[in-house]
Prior knowledge:
Layout: E1 2-6, E2 11-15, E3 30-31, E4 55-56, E5 62-66, E6 69-72, E7 80-84, E8 89-93, E9 99-102, E10 109-117, E11 123-124, E12 131-139, H1 145-148, E13 155-164, H2 170-176, E14 190-191, E15 208-214, E16 225-236, H3 238-244, E17 271-275, E18 280-282
Parallel strand pairs: 4-11, 5-17, 6-18, 13-16
Antiparallel strand pairs: 1-2, 2-3, 6-9, 7-8, 7-14, 8-10, 9-10, 10-12, 12-13, 15-16, 15-17
Helix pairs in contact: 2-3
Amino acid sequence: MLLLEGLSNFYKIRFLIHKKDDYSKTWRVWNTSLRENYQDGWPDSCCGNNQSPIELLKKTAEIVHMSRLVYTNYDVPQDVFLENNGHTVKVGFGCKSVSICDGILENEYVLDNIHFHWNSEHTLNGKKYPLESHFVHYIKEAENLQNALNIPFGIAIIAVFYEFSPEGSEIFNKITKNVECVATNIKEPVPLDEQLVPKELLPKRSCNYYAYTGSLTTPDCNEPVQWIIFPKPCKISPCQLEALKNIYDEDNKPILRNARPLQPLNGRIVKYVKESFYGKFKKK
């Protein structure tokens, strides 16, 4: 669980015991200003050589051409629930029919949840965005997210940046208008009264993406994870972002920031994938 304590010059985030149905079991002190000390007390798995997030640079990325990603039921309205899990807002998918495959992926991955980090965790050509969403998928054979954590490349995450625009996003309103219902209720999911179409939370007609091998950005920082990051951002208004951030931890303190600092690349190759055609959306 993420606990935020406001200090005069920096924020301190404490990670405590987390339930097994989440990414991590143990949370420790995370000082987001004193970067060299922020993960004191984190498990050894968070000190691996393939950690996330990283800096993305187009000039150093390896350009590759691949078949397009295939999104199954991403364009179909889905019943979802909203949850404050103690460190972010999570949009959960109860069904197992929304998935992604092909492109950089060697297997089919089922969408488990979409959650958010403010500011962005990754940077793109030196730029940090006000918000980054993560579409967390688990390998289909694992049957659930928890099982997939123990499988190499059992997790695939699509990351989407958000930039400010006055009008914001109509689809995002379906989320932000319900945040108040979970603002202070930790791990008490609330069904949304409107269905969401996952495709509408992706950048429109984005044929290219960055890909690399990384980790979860929260303890236990499991490796390896296949990352897919779209360079084309979606839109959000400042008011929508403030509404999204209006959640509290178990000590009733506001979660002001929940982004892990950049991690060393350690010789990893970042690919810039160019698809021949825009990703294929199909119903099943």
